[in-house]
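Good morning,

Both structures are done.
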Amino acid sequence: MAQQLRIVLSPASAFGEAGAQLAAIIRARIEERCPARVTDGPAELTFTLALDPQIAAEGFRIEDGDIGVRVSGSDRLGLLAGVGKLLRTSRYPASGFQPSAWRGESAPQCAIRGIYFASHFHNWYQVAPAPELERYVEDLALWGINTVAAIFPFINLDGWDDPESEPSLQQTRRLLQAGKRLGLRTCLLVGNTLFHNTPQALRAAPVDDPRGRRGNSGAPVCPHHPAGNALLQDCYRRLFAGLADLEIDYLCVWPYDEGGCGCQQCAPWGANGLLKVTRELAALAHTHFPDMRVILSTWMFDTPPEGEWEGLTRALAAGDHGIDYLMAASHEDFPRYPLEHGVPGGLPLLDFPEISMWGLAPWGGFGATPLPARHQRLWQQAKDHLAGGFAYSEGIYEDINKALISQFYWDRKTTAAATLREYIAYEYAPEAIAPLSRMIALIESSHTRAAQQAEVNPDQVRTALALARQVDGQLPAWARRGWRWRILFLRAVLDHERHQGGGLAAPEARAALRELVALFHAAPVDDGPDPYHQRVRPPLPP
């Protein structure tokens, strides 16, 4: 057990400003959890941080040092992931700091390990203060995430003169800059949707959506309409110029929901109009980001079947398409086409795990949404075909799911259960692994039954709440006060009130919802800052 810790950079000249940043990250995580302190003077334990290019790309090694523990990374990202592993597998008792016993070498199996921060609807990503955003991106980088993605929320705004446009642009910049300051890569999502005051004459025809899965949100324009396409080009030329200093690494072109066009000239969208948008927006982006790579999303292709996958295969077979990665995703199971017929163009395949919306509305409105069994099942469907992906996030309420996805990308053979145990031990307490694993399984079962419109088992919600209260009385103070525990505890409270108690108007439910509104920086009243805010605001009754 150590009371005094020292951090040594070996050699210090190899790190520059990044060394001080990494030392600050370690210090903050240790000192907020236990009485041990990081010092520049004599210490009982030394962490030596080193760079070793012999380690596989973005990998790390943890081994015994001369007077402590040595963490080596192949590069800055590998060192961040190694420090994260060290911190998560160490222990923080009230008597001091107990260093990790984990030793070994590890490197990621997927090249792109991303999170898409959907910064719109005045959700947490759009309104959280910069220090909270930066801290959260640090936490994800410690789990091995290497890319952050964001979007400029055209859907919220009435043109560049809207008073919210400049703040929205600055928040998009903050998200991307939070990744850049750590050495992470960045991605910008784009499409053919523009400001919601776009003239009706320029708008796209609604896409065919008999299953109600593609969405027709926002104000997409038709890229084959000359004036509409000119407006699309002008808006993105201005957006790219406003982000030019950030060196965007990836451009991801999105097909549906906020995008798409069902007119005859654009159909089938995924093999026609979307490719026109991709070519033209990529050409614009490359004027500012010459080394940027292009990701084409196939989200909700062929729902309903209209030849999009086959048409895309033919189009990419011709070559010279300028697309570097293909992304495949849906609301439910992984799309079968690329698994059964191969990836069009032979491109590396990415996924887009839906960790935020599934089975519950408002999204995150009742607290944490851990779904380990669901994500394990979906990962099994495509894991051997993937080069990585971006988890789709609308807020911090699915933090557990982000950890699960990050470790799937790191090691295709890992399990959700193993990651969950590591998460619980680090973010709550090692003694909480058994009760919280059970509690989370009960929450997921109730979540799944409600999503399937089946009756929720009353014993499960009662047991989950009892476990939450049991653990709450046993956690260390830092964990009990932390937002990660509060959103999980409040989920057990609200599930009980929704399914077995007095409903959302009950005093305990109202108190829980008020706390969530504050944690998520949501609008305090129903008539919030935009018409889409209700999708992400806890449903606090008036």
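Second structure follows.
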Amino acid sequence: MRTFSFNRGETNLFNQQHLNLVYNQEVYIPYIQRPFSLDAVETQMALKSNSFSKVERETLHDALISQYEELNPSEKVKENISSLKQKNTFTITTGHQLSLLTGPLFFVVKILHVIKQCELLKEQFPESHFVPIFWMATEDHDFEEIQSTNLFNNKLKWESSQKGPVGRFNLEGLDEVKNEFSAFFSNSEGNEIEEFITHYSGKNLAEATRNAVNHLFGDRGLLILDGDDRLLKSAFQKVVEKELTEQFSNEAVLKTNNKLLADGAHLQVNSREVNLFYIDNQIRERIIFEENKFVIPQLGAFDLNGIIELLKKDPTKFSPNVILRPVYQELILPNLVYVGGGGEISYWLQLKGVFDSLDLTYPLIQVRNSVMWIDENMGKKLDKYDLKIEDLFKDKDLLKKEYIELNESESLDFSFLDRQKEMYIDAISKITLEVDSQLSGFLNGELVKVEKQIEGVKSKLVKASKLKHDGAMKTIDVLYDRLFPNNSLQERNDNFFQLCAKGNVKEQIQHLYMALEPFNGDFLVVREI
């Protein structure tokens, strides 16, 4: 394997806001704690150490002990859970939806990014301990966004009529998809694919995802956290009550949004008067505040006292939306950095005022590594036509044009031939008309034949030239279709297991891990050799 690094701005794949979040967070200083850097991490450690209490650490520890009760965690996982009770332990966090069979490649990239970052931080600050966290979005209800995945140009889809928080979905119908998935690897060596499929099971989707992700990354110490938890929701209850009583988050976000828009930033998410959902089995309904009542579809309308009573009775039924989910996360974790995709990190810019309203420490934010994977077959195609990786960042039609111009034979420069043709026509016309002016009609007819013959030869040459480069043109089409499927980044479309056609799951995870550079924001290209 070889890894190549390119400034994201030179790839033409990312917008300016994305580039600022990667390379120039200074422009967003009014909206963040401080720009991400290694020095900033050290400062953040002091802040979080002072603001995260012993009680909060014990609550988190106890919740994780309970969540891992039915698993057989690795020794490294056990050590990381235990260490969370210590004042010098901090977390680096990423999160994602419960994507089918891990979903797109960046699901795995995100996780490996935080794992490797923790290990690098340990080298820098050996007296402290750093724990990688994967936050499962179990309370999300956008099933359509997670029910399918793309593998070897095929779409695998799990059909289900269930509603509400996806983490609570039972797994009825999932075996059919798992069988279809396994069939793609029937000729692969070893049994790593089947081991993964075996672990991708449980009483619901949250449990299946935890089991599968733990199987893939538990040996690296990754802790998988489910926010749909009674202990953790009880710790979050005071924020929920403040939101119901004051609707504080919307006011804070709207103020920030106005400033961001004035600064030319793009807003990623919309805030609501109440940024909470009410959840139950098969239910996730937005809480609507109107005419001094809290309306929950399927339940009815409640005054403030009534909805507070619901909260006190069962805090697990109140779920934060995209505005308050980061608050929930940072409230219950000794977190230093949140790592996410460019769009995800963009909406954190809208949230600093919400954190300030709670006197809650805002984390450092970082855009994850972005990776393109060129397998051995694609690499051979690049080499055959002397194409460089950076050529792939050009517009496809421009690359084709440049390729033909660079590789075209001089014989297709018809300017000399056209000059010789004109000299011939002038000479033969002069001689013919000097001999007999009555032959002008005959001469014109013959010259038309000559013109047609010459154009016919030129047309044949052009066609032959095009055929000569037809292989290159088709190869460029194939490269773009494979590396930029649906005109998108490969990592956003293709399932991670597409890299594991030989069944070599752990090996490919290690290759990805080695390629990642958590303190380098450049676009990474991994090429198989």
